[in-house]
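Model it.
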Amino acid sequence: MSGFPIKYCCMVMRVSCDCNGCYRKIRRIILNMKEIETHLIEKQHNRVYVCGRFRPADVAIKMRKKMKRRVEILDVEEESAGTGDQMRQLTTHFSPQPIARISLQPTAHVFQ
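Modeled.
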């Protein structure tokens, strides 16, 4: 979508996950995205951690369109080479304030 280069990064998103059906839907959407290598879904905290070669905004927009729910990007960390240690760092450290909120209205694609 955008002209930014695709880099290996890890991202934390907040997605409303009310029931097991929502959890399964999030998991199915993530598994169908070829660019995502690893993922972790925390149902209790409504957080989704994903790592791979992608543009964070593109993944969040795709998740929002398929889930029909608001998606907030909490943290994005870019790496030059893909390492498994990045997922552990993200699960222990994240910013509580959302970086971006992506909702169903097209005018709400405002990055802070």
